[in-house]
Amino acid sequence: MEPTKISNRTIAAIFDEIADLLEIDGANPFRVRAYRRAAQNILALSKPLSQLVAEGADLTQLPGIGEALAQKITEIVTTGSLHYLDELKKRIPPDLERLLKISGLGPKRVHQLYEALHIRSLADLKKALDEGKVQALDGFGPKLVQSIADGLARQTGVVRHRLFEADPVAHAVVESLRRCKGVRRIEIAGSIRRRKETVKDIDIVAGTSMNTDIMETFLSLPDVKRIVMQGPTRSSVELFSGFHIDLRAVHEEAFGSALHHFTGARSHNIALRTMASEQGLKINEYGIYKGVRRIGGEHESDIYERLGMQYIEPELRENRGEIECALQHRLPKLIERKAIRGDLHIHTDRSDGSASVETMARAAMALGYEYMAVTDHTKHLTVARGQDEDRLLEALDEIDALNDRLEGFTILKSAETDILEDGSLDLGDEVLRRLDLVVGAVHFKFNLSKKMQTKRIIKAMEHPAFSILAHPTGRLINLRDPYELDMHAVIAAAKELGVILELNAQPSRLDLNDLHCKTAKEAGVKIAVSTDAHSVADLQLMAYGIAQARRGWLEPEDVVNTLPLKELLALLGR
Questions:
Q1: What is the DSSP string of 306-336?
Q2: Which of 170, 376, 448, 497 has the fewest C-beta atoms under 10 angstroms from its C-beta?
Q3: Confidence band for 296, pLDDT divided at 50, 70 and 90
Q4: pTM of the predicted model as reported, rounded to 2 decimal places
């Protein structure tokens, strides 16, 4: 079987998930550590494992990869899945893995809850909390219990998966179906195609001939746990991983209309159908009609052309003003990945990254970048090996030496500086003045009042060396709510002070969110789309940041790291 293009990050995530499940199951700690170590080593690789498999490379020569793990990597790359993981998931109650998404609950604590209180589900956990049983366990203090209770409240609503979790699942299914008999076109639709930060389920649309076996193949995929609905043109399944997938099959000539129908937000589609009706037209998933005559629908663009509008990119189809702009032919020219010239938030092994400064620099050069900023943590964040002034000055000397050797590429001297509770920065002014830019961030005291948190951040932004506010709201999607913050006040202060706001591309952050990006753009505040990379593989996360930027209506001129280095430094006042 031909290797897939599955990413190293996805393979590492699979090994991390196996480690979690083994730890929940009470497996030998050495086995757990082997998978965790393998995941970390995979993230540090500069070459895709899919390429190594295609080349027939000996994977056991990679650090931490023995024969058994090498076989599993090959299986993942060639099939897009792993039988061993599927078997683990069948053995362990599915809600136990879901407990891991609750703040404060790692695999060891989930195992403890399972062993001591026989907790197998979210409902079991809620009952045990209500009865005070969790509080009675060793190691479960009041703060942890409150954190668990808060996390449980977030998890018990409608399950929404983070985009980066849904992406590889959706792509693997599409690749499996693309080879089916009679399939002419097939695409992921729904909120994944709109690049929403979380998705409820996966929608796939296929354009087929009359003679196709796509539904039979779909229903018999190895990951299918149960068939929810079965029909000749629509079927739905639930996977062992918890994802629901809906497949629609239409005749090839209706593919554009179906893809459009199952991509846009409901309010966007209703608005277009209303417009069409006013023009004597009818739009549905099968085409565009004038009376009973079908006049288009093979391509999505048919719909917008018939309505006299610009084509609206999928990321904008939320009914947030895009229709009015399209009618007036003044939609933004959305930023694309190729516009990015550098990454302004990168960690190395001087703090909590996994690679050296030079390794990260050469990886950034391979992406075609002109520059990157090394933003290792500072001294207050001891858990991330934050650097004090002396260690940071040593790092700056290393960067100077590297810049002398690297041709056509510049490493910018920076630091991700902690914003302390009183709004001061945790580095002295003398060192701050030596940096090309200062990235400030909140990493503790998330529970301040809205007034105090806003005051704290704005005071930090007033420091003359302050350049970029990193992950401004502090959220972790599905894990930690944003802290209380007056974002309108922060955006206004950023405009007044010339401070740049970060759109952090880590898919568990995507912070700023799309609405804040649009608000910042309208206020004239510049954005830095940065990866917060802690490994070479993380540099690829820029794609998630660009998707979020596009949802926020951002154009290249709104994003500072589309600028050539000279213009960027002038903007930074350096």
A1: HTT-PPPPGGG-SSSSHHHHHHTT-------
A2: 497
A3: very high
A4: 0.79
